[in-house]
User: What shape does this take?
Amino acid sequence: MQRNAIKVFIGFEGVALHDSCTASWVPLMLPHVVIVGGGFGGLAAVRALRKAPVRVTLIDKRNYHLFRPMLYQVATGLLSADEISGPLRSIFSHQENVDVVLDEVTGINSGRRIIHLTRGELPYDFLILATGIQYNYFGHDEWRHFAPGLESLDDADLVRGRILRAFERAEEMASIEHASTEEIRRQLTFALVGAGTVGVEMASTLAEMSRMALTHDFRHIDPKSARILLYEAGPRILPTYPEHLSIKAQHHLESLGVEIYTMPASRVFLLSERLPGQDSYSTTFREEIKAPRQ
Ligand SMILES: Cc1cc2nc3c(=O)[nH]c(=O)nc-3n(C[C@H](O)[C@H](O)[C@H](O)COP(=O)(O)OP(=O)(O)OC[C@H]3O[C@@H](n4cnc5c(N)ncnc54)[C@H](O)[C@@H]3O)c2cc1C
Assistant: This one.
């Protein structure tokens, strides 16, 4: 790709200079557009500039684009990582005015028009920041320790591992330790805080996983008995959507056995330490979660 770019750009500008940071050959006479982030926003920006007389550098700390809306499916084992990601270099292999750089942007000096990377710095004429969002724990940053956000494939792996380990642990408790039904029930209780799109999708996928995908895989527990609790501080789930869609989604979730708790109610989310001998998310909420069911 870079060789083709040299030919094209030499023909266009008659000059190709080495950019010390990107290690690619680009004509410095063209305006340099730096785009940080190869998510939806970054991809759209790069594509929009495909015919523009500019040289584009796309920087991402990952070398792949991640289709985040499907991340929860990886977190529940229904899709594999490669089904929701693609290498940025391949995506833009036919767009000759773009150079892909794998690095993390650590700072910006807008006065000097320079961005700082972990391995150097890069000048720009125009800068597009498309670095996405960060999770908001609503003032409870201590929750991050128990419930990581779902931002990356690593997060999805972590969540999937913990969900599956909760079932494994319950099986072990039932078969070897002869634990009580109540203890096993607690081990298989999954609490989701926030019933926006991700919370609703995650609850629904968890329910499908326990009610369908795992049903025949265990001998001593019934995965269908897993409790899935969905908490929402607003008056209804999907609070930003039209009410009829919230009601429809609620009916669907309830048909899958998801228990839904919404406000108005007492503030219910009390996250405690793990219970002794248990290591899954399902046990990180104490029993005092008692929001009235709406
Ligand atoms: C589980 C889940 C489900 C969703 N479902 C939907 C849905 O159904 N419909 C919908 O419209 N939206 C959905 N969304 C939201 C949607 O995914 C986001 O709105 C969208 O991904 C935002 O795109 P973006 O380009 O702004 O950021 P992102 O897609 O997050 O991309 C940001 C990129 O910037 C890179 N980056 C960040 N910081 C740096 C740095 N310092 N240096 C270099 N690179 C950096 C990251 O590696 C990443 O590649 C969902 C999100 C999640 C998590």
Remarks:
- The radius of gyration is 24 Å.
- The chain has two domains: 2-129, 141-283.
- Residues 35 and 58 are 5 Å apart (CA to CA).
- Residues 1-23, 266-294 have pLDDT under 50 and may be disordered.
